[in-house]
């Protein structure tokens, strides 16, 4: 059985809180959901891992990483803010490209292939959502992600059968 949303998010937040502590950073996670929503937990976990790893990687000591998860209508919103080095407007358009990395000399020492965000975008698109990058004044980046929550649906065959039952009764 899948974990509830609350335990699912708490477990992920907890491991990042420990990682952050070891790196002299702070990581805070807030979840504001009423009730349980239907998520593909392995995909959402992969998505969060990419964004949280980047927020940790591209912020310095005293880094502050804040996560907020909310729901509006049939969408799950995920906000990932850091106070790191930020992403210029020009690079905001390109960081989702495969293998694109900002300032190769500077990021080389941090490792990575430049694949994380392109994968993140694919996950979001598969979810019928969107991903955007904003600045996080005075310094840093804020990723704003919206995922369509799968609503429990009635199978088409079942609707057909119901209609037939109704018309048979007439
Ligand atoms: P990996 O393949 O391991 O994910 P990566 O981190 O370089 O490597 P992406 O996650 O695709 O690859 O990120 C692309 C580039 O965007 C990074 O190289 C970095 O320059 C920039 N970037 C991503 N997240 C942030 C962030 N939170 N703050 C500042 N720059 C970022």
TrEMBL record:
<protein>
    <recommendedName>
        <fullName>histidine kinase</fullName>
    </recommendedName>
</protein>
<feature type="domain" description="Histidine kinase">
    <location>
        <begin position="1"/>
        <end position="151"/>
    </location>
</feature>
């Amino acid at each position: 059985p899948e974990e509830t949303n609350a335990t699912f998010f708490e477990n992920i937040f907890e491991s990042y809180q420990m990682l952050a502590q070891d790196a002299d950073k702070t990581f805070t996670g807030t979840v504001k959901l009423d009730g349980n929503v239907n998520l593909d937990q392995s995909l959402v976990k992969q998505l969060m891992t990419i964004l949280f790893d980047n927020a940790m990687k591209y912020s310095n000591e005293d880094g502050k990483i804040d996560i907020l998860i909310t729901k509006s209508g049939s969408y799950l919103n995920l906000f990932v803010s850091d106070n790191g080095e930020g992403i210029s407007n020009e690079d905001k358009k390109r960081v989702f490209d495969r293998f694109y990395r900002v300032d190769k000399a500077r990021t080389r020492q941090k490792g990575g292939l430049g694949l994380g965000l392109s994968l993140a975008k694919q996950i979001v698109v598969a979810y019928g959502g969107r991903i955007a990058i904003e600045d996080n004044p005075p310094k840093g980046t804020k990723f704003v992600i919206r995922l369509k929550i799968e609503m429990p649906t009635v199978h088409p065959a079942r609707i057909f059968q119901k209609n037939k039952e109704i018309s048979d009764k007439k």
